[in-house]
Amino acid sequence: MILYLHGFRSSPSSFKARLLAQHFASIGRADEFVCPQLPASPAAAIALAQELINQRRDERLVLIGSSLGGYYATYLAEQNDCKAVLVNPAVKPPRDLEKYVGVTTAFHSDEPFEFKQAYIDELKRFAIDTITRPERYFLIAATGDEVLDWRDMVDHYPQSKQLIIQGSDHGVSEFAAYIETVMAFCDAE
């Protein structure tokens, strides 16, 4: 199973999620790709992801996380001893998301949701200060990320496989160009 975890205010309708779903369908592996709508609560998001992992425990697992989903993927990779591809991952979301406490909307709908102060404390519970087994991680970081600092990402994933994109943006607009590289990492034993 390839479990894709989207970022804050994002959804399975995001560009990268749709692109990956289309790619897996085009190679006859659509049943391997799972991308749930994550709840606003970090504890609920982790619980949902872990439940999906537990349901398919007999399958090989690789996580792909974007932004806040990268933070979740790091925690889950450590807990489940699996690989993770991290695309511009958040490494300090309790600090970075504090300014979003309150009611906001998702990027792909007008439906409002509340990001509660209690969620900041939930985020702290899932912090991984030092990764183990760096070979299990593949970091894709863009120097042009307008939301997060790519240098924090590089520092957080030392000795992991890293692809540093000069320029680009937080969403990695040219992500299609990296799908084969991501797939090679996912499929490698």
Automatic annotation (TrEMBL):
Alphabetically ordered keywords of this record: Hydrolase
Question: Record's SUPFAM superfamilies?
Answer: alpha/beta-Hydrolases (SSF53474)
Do you know which InterPro entries this protein is assigned to?
AB_hydrolase_fold, UPF0227/Esterase_YqiA
One Pfam family of this chain:
UPF0227
One Gene Ontology term of the molecular function aspect? hydrolase activity
Top-level taxon of origin: Bacteria
Q: What is this protein called?
A: Alpha/beta fold hydrolase
What is the organism field in this record? Undibacterium baiyunense
